Amino acid sequence: MFKCRLMPASRMAPPGRRILVTGALGQIGTDLVEELRARHGTASVIASDVREVPGHPFLEDGPFRLLSVLDGDGMDAVVREGGVGTIYHLAAILSATGEKNPNLCRRVNVGGITNVLEMAMKHDLRVYAPSSIAVFGPDAPKLSTQDSPLNPTTTYGETKCTGEALARGYLDCFGVDCRGIRYPGLISWKAPAGGGTTDYAVEIFHAALEKGHYECFVRPDTRLPMMYIDDAIRATLDLMDAPPESLGNSRAGYNVSGISFTAQELADTIAERIDGFTCDFVPDVRQKYADSWPDAVDDSVAQDEWGWKAEYDLDSMVDAMLEGLSRS
User: Fold this and answer.
1) Is residue 118 part of a domain?
2) Among 172, 145, 138, 140, CA closest to 249
3) 151 with 71, same domain?
4) In this structure, is residue 237 part of a structural domain?
5) Could you tell me the CA-to-CA distances from 300 to 44, 145, 242, 249, 250 in Å, in that order?
6) What is residue 14's DSSP assignment?
7) pLDDT at 19
8) Which of 37, 183, 298, 318 has its CA at a distance of 20 to 30 angstroms from the CA of residue 259?
9) What's residue 57's pLDDT?
10) Strands (E) located in the chain
11) What pairs with residue 20 in β-bridges?
């Protein structure tokens, strides 16, 4: 698969080089760019996306580039001209959208990470490229460990497995320091969800506040691993801050655990805080994708290697979501 040449593993980008974030206007990117700019300075973080969202603060506040991750020449120009040393590669077609258009999902998800890893090899960059719990399939245990089998039944999951394999290959052959987390379903209020199977866990908050009712597209007993966005951003940055020598063979896709709850438990917890809120459950095709994933993941490897531990439970996550949306 690779024509290897020996290079030092886990090269660190020289200090002072800038950060490029792909998919910066999405759910994760909105919070991640904000935190990176708070840490490193606004001018040091280049936000990029394939689209412009009218009114999004990143279009005016700090450097922004229109960039398709399939445009290798365009990415090369941004890296060279911007003095980039690290890429956070978030651009992707997510699970529910990916199953509607599997060819696009493969092109964007596999083609995008391949271009990013080529840039990293060429320009001596560090890379963060997230994976997903979608790498697991129906044969994985309901509490999936770091080494549980990866036999996804969705196109999205297949592309994330390929991404993990590519990251390991570029590390072994070219010394590219690429790290990733198998994100569970992410729950945030600053940006809309992006077409994933776990979007119900975000949509339900908007519906509760705006209409007092939500029609959920999975069964009430559907239990999935979830994580509040603040924990996800902290996990991302903690992993990227970890010394290379502390990381083992899981660096391309660490399990991280946040909260596991059923759709009914989420609805009940919201109803405790919003009088009169009701929820109906009308499963659609996304139920099949949810059923193929584990109920929870074992993140003991991430705990041992870089000290990961979630802070939010179901109650504190619901409180944070309702407070954030009420202020927005």
Assistant:
1) yes
2) 172
3) yes
4) no
5) 34, 8, 16, 14, 11
6) P
7) 98
8) 37
9) 86
10) 18-22, 45-49, 64-66, 84-89, 126-128, 131-132, 143-144, 177-179, 181-183, 185-187, 213-216, 223-228, 254-255, 259-262, 278-281, 296-297
11) 46, 87
Q: What is the domain extent for residue 35? A: 18-184+251-255
Q: Would you write out the chain's pLDDT as a tens digit for each of its 328 residues?
A: 444 543 443 334 445 599 999 999 999 999 999 999 999 999 999 999 999 988 888 988 899 999 999 999 999 999 999 999 999 999 999 998 999 999 999 999 999 999 999 999 999 999 999 999 999 999 999 999 999 999 999 999 999 999 999 999 999 999 999 999 999 999 999 987 778 899 999 999 999 999 999 999 999 999 999 999 999 999 999 999 999 999 999 999 999 999 999 999 999 999 999 999 999 999 999 999 999 999 999 999 999 999 999 999 999 999 999 999 999 8
**Of 59, 34, 31, nearest to 45 (Cα)?**
34
User: What secondary structure does DSSP assign to 223-258, as a single string?
Assistant: EEEEEEHHHHHHHHHHHHHS-GGG--TTTTSEE---
- Please check whether residue 168 lies inside any domain of the structure: yes
pTM for the complete prediction? 0.93
Q: What is the CATH number of the domain that holds 30?
A: 3.40.50.720
122 φ/ψ angles, rounded to the nearest 5 degrees: -70, -40
Q: Please list, in sequence order, all residues whose beta carbon lies within 8 angstroms of the beta carbon of residue 41, skipping any fewer than 6 positions away.
A: none
Q: Are residues 267 and 131 in the same domain?
A: no
Contact between residue 119 and residue 78 where contact means Cβ atoms under 8 Å apart? no
Q: Which residues are catalytic?
A: 156
The residue type of 119 is M
User: What DSSP state is assigned to residue 165?
Assistant: H
Q: How far apart are CA 67 and CA 291, in angstroms?
A: 35
3-state helix, strand, coil split of the chain in percent (to 5) is 45, 15, 40
Give yes or no: residues 137 and 198 share one domain. no
Residue that has been written with the tokens 């036999």 in this structure: 151
Same domain, yes or no: 64 and 174: yes
Q: Do 171 and 65 belong to one domain?
A: yes
In angstroms, rounded to a whole number, what is the distance separating the alpha carbons of residues 53 and 188? 18
Q: How far apart are CA 27 and CA 225, in angstroms?
A: 17
